[in-house]
Each structure stands twice: as structure tokens, then as C-alpha cells.
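Entry 14. Structure prediction run on the chain below.
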Amino acid sequence: MAIFLTKESKVLVQGMTGGEGMKHTRRMLAAGTDVVGGVNPRKAGQAVAFDDRVVPVFGSVREGMAATGADVTVVFVPPAFAKAAVIEAADAGIGLAVVITEGIPVHDSVAFHAHAAAKGTRVIGPNCPGLITPGQSNAGIIPADITKPGRIGLVSKSGTLTYQLMYELRDIGFSTCVGIGGDPVVGTTHIDCLAAFQDDPDTELVVLIGEIGGDAEERAAAYVRDHVTKPVVAYIAGFTAPEGRTMGHAGAIVSGSAGTAQAKKMALEAAGVRVGGTPTETARLVLTRWESERVAAQG
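Output returned:
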């Protein structure tokens, strides 16, 4: 099992014929992803050879879905065209749109998120690394060779920290890793992923990575307290950040005590979540909890 993405997923790539689209389509294919087509109106009818796979290019998402049965799209188009790309995908009825593009204006993100929600399309991102179900499928830019299939679920605002925790916990492995992005407005949230992992029988423990700014982690803590029975371990990036300054992602804005790493840590710990002070300490907390769960199951 997994959440949102499996070996059965059929993936389109909007912007596949661009430099980043080409590079990461090749990497997705190498990871076993069933990339069934690219989308570029100016190159419709062409095909692109990737090692031992030839991928057709369609003029629209609707055309690609009709020809291939695609249910996922990965968006690599430039920021100025991202809004139109996501709206096009939602209008075509795609189930999942993974928006890798960074630098999208917030008002564009607000517009396409609202449109996608009305059409029933789940959006992951923007400004995110995508998601991977190791051994099954990889939609985005997450390295596929740093971990293995397992029973940990991971949801993270940070791409880099996603990769670090995946690597440090590679001996256990992951069910699905979701990079939700760090912009002020994102589609899929920590809570959405927590709910999906709670319902996934093959996810036994969840790692949550947040960062300073906003209140997403506090809201996630309340959700864990009220709805999640599986162990959750967290890390909050930004313990050393100065107050009143934007740090890293566009959403990481701290004002007074609101949005600080310490405030988020307190909220999570009050909900029964162990919070690491560093990524490596967080991995150690996961390993300790994992081992204790194994001992309890055997005894």
C-alpha cells in the first residue's frame, strides 16, 4: 500500500520537453514510474526517446489522458504558465497534479488551488520536490536511490530535509514520502497526509517535517491529538532563526512568539509527538520508537 501514488499510477509530464522536464522524466522512468506522455501544444505528435522508453508528446492534458488513461500529472512549466497548466489539468479531470515549479505568484497559486479543489483534483505543491513511493513510483525530483520500500510515512515542507531523513532512515524504508512545499499557499497539507497515513495499513510510523512560520504545524498537532493513533515523530527547521525575518521558504515568517520553532515544538509535544532538535536526532528518535514498537509487538 501507499498514499496518493502507486505502481499503477500513469503519469503525464507537463513541460517534459524542457531541460528540467527532460532530466527528471528520465530519472522518474529509471525509478519505475509509468510515464505515459508529455504535454506541449507546440510539439504535439512528436515523441521523446529516454534510454529504452519512447514517450509520446500530446497537445493537451485532456488528449494525453484520453490516449493513455493517465491519472497523475507532474508540472515543470515556468512560473508564468503554471496557473494555466494546473487549471488545464484540473479541467481535464486529472486526479493528482504535482507542481514542482517554484516562484509562482501567490495569487496564481490561490486561483489554481481553488479551481482544482472545485474540480476534485488533488494538488501537491507548488515549490515542492513531489512524492515517491519507493519501489513503485516517483513523481517529481526526489532521488529514488537513497532509500527503500518500508513502513514509515514522511510528510515534509522541505525538500532537502526530506532527502536527509529518507537517507538516515534507509535501513527501515518508507511507504510514501510527500514533499508538500513551503510556499504560503499549498494544496495538500500536513493534515491531509497524516489522515492518509493513518488510513494506510502499511504505514506504521509517521515522520512530520515542518519549519518556522505560519501555524500549519500547530494545526497538524491538534489533528494528531484528535485523530492519529500511529506514532508520530517530528522535526521543525529554524530553531536558530532570528525573529521577524523571512527564512528560506516564502512561508517561513515569524512574528513574536507566533510561528517559532519552539512554539511548534511545544504544540506537537503536547499532542504526544516526539520532536528532534536536529534532523539526525529526529532519525534517532524514529529508530528508538521503531525498535520499541517491534519489542512491544513481539512481547
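The first strand starts at residue 10 and ends at 14.
Filed with the rest of this week's runs.
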